What does this fold into?
Amino acid sequence: MKATARRLGVSSITQKGLNTVITFRNDATVDVDKLTALIVKNPQRLLFTMGDVPHLTIRGFKDDKHPGRMGEQQTLATSPNDGGAWKVREISELLEEIV
It folds into this structure.
């Protein structure tokens, strides 16, 4: 994920409550058409903010479903702590989609 993030021009990835914020450098090489299509497909989940510090917010919700240890769907509120591995996969997949 770090290599993809660097290649795209990501300056930081931070967790703010249930949300994840991906901050881009001004010279980021994000494909704007792909990013726009992704946001249109997921308007409740994704928010892109332009400005001096452009960033993409991935909104998290307590009832978000993610794969559990045995393949079953779990929510953030009921799952055992997997160390955030599922979140790393989610961010990696998102970054790959906007390259």
